[in-house]
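RESIDUES AND SHAPES:
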Amino acid sequence: MDDRRDVVVSVDAAEITKRSLIEGRLLVLAAIIMSALTLRAAVTAFSPLAETIGAQIGYGAGIVGVFGMLPTAMFGVAGLVAPLLVRRFGLERTVFVAMLLAGAGSLVRVFAGGTGELLAFSGVALLGMGIGNVVIPPLVKRYFGDHLAAISSLYIVMVQLSTVVPAFIAVPVAQAHGWRISMGVWAMVGFAAAIPWLVVLRDRRGRDSVDSTALPARAASTGKVWRSPVAWGMAGMFGMTSLTTYAMFTWLPKILSDAGASAGFGGSMVGLFALIGLIPALGAPTVVSRMPNPFPVVVGAMVLFATAFVGLLVAPMHATVLWVVLLGLGPSTFPMALTLINLRTRTPQGSAALSGFTQGVGYAIACLGPLLFGLLHTWSGGWLAPFAMLFVALGVLLAGAWQACKPRMLEDSW
């Protein structure tokens, strides 16, 4: 009789443990989704309103360019800072603080009365989002290593939505309620994303900090990542994709307006460019996870990019929608790179080191894209020289992807 009771108790305990694990993973999944929804909102909620805000608080076109470079610059800083925070505080505490920074910076900046305050607190928000960029891939690896492709697709789609939705609703909300409300509502998303991480931290009871410092070898992981061809390949692949994408986000309306398009048409094409990015966000992680070496997919993406560039250069107002659709499919290498961060590492700590290096170096390079594209246009008086720069970037991207896509692990190559 006692033996049967012991068996029943043991079964009940196992079921409770299993249920707790499932509930814990669902909570982390919700936290990852909420965090991903914050990772671009501070950028695209501001961009459509930049001129309106400038007219009110007093800055000109030059400062708009500074705001344009700020996201990639702060994301680059975050790529260098985040691995240090992860080793000191753990993944969960780091992402919790990142969401608080994103929410606080986004909220405080809407009360700014001058350009300096707006820049400073936009920087705080972007730093938080940049840290989130770095730590979410290793969090996916830690909690969902058995479903990397599916969860990677899900969170990358959420990142894409955080790019598209604020851009589409920023102007209508500002017209109805003012620009401060239009930007301020996105601060609530950052604070909301911090709440489930707080619950995760409470449930883990400090185990995240122990996990992140338990192995002495991890202390050297950031230094060693610089020696790896996998890391440099990832940085080249990610950086050139971001450079090209941000250059097109910035200059596509001007390219089309010079060809005779209206401002409204140029804006709608930027929206289409961002919206098409949902397609590779959904499909690329699954494709990459099923191929030992996904370099042929990178080559295909470069063909799409190149075709779009030629179309926009030679016939921008003929088949414009086709060129923009191809342009939106070209950055398939962005979700590919984010997925490869986990596929080319053995541990969450290796993933954090590779993510930090890839995004730190990549975004530092990417912030030069819009600036160089504009300078070359001013210098040459046309669009041939700027597009030639982007073709060079595609060559560097291919060289980086050749290294990043090889079926080998970061930890075996440093």
Summary: Confidence is low (pLDDT under 50) at residues 7-14, 208-222. The chain is about 85% helix and 0% strand. The chain has two domains: 1-214, 216-414. Residues 67 and 119 are 7 Å apart (CA to CA).
